[in-house]
Amino acid sequence: MIEAPLEDVIEVIEGYEAYPEWADVQKVEVRQRGEGGRATEVAFEVDVPVMGKAAYTLSYIYAAGDTGLSWTTKEARGAIRDIRGEYLLTELPDGGTKVVYRLAVELGVLVPGFLRTQGGNRVIENALERLKRRVEMG
User: What confidence score (pLDDT) does residue 111 get?
Assistant: First the structure.
């Protein structure tokens, strides 16, 4: 739950160029924009702890009414082979926003199952906490 209106949450999520300021991302480049100027293709560079650097480009699809967005990998190299995910947003009566974040990552390196599961859970928790902090602090 983020104590901010849905519009504020989607604005931060779609502010890809600002991700290096608050997310675990070193570099971002919006490569393509679609209807209304929304990014439909975004390239990222990240440093994955223990596994090394990764670069990937994601294709985005936006839900009607700003209630979410989903992404799939267009291309990837390095420590990450494939990423798929989505944000589902629900405006709450008290003015807050419920955020559901789903993420599936296929690594480009072999990692034991328990480390992969632990790492995946940590990535999701960190992403939600950083999003919450960014939105609520403005």
Answer: 58
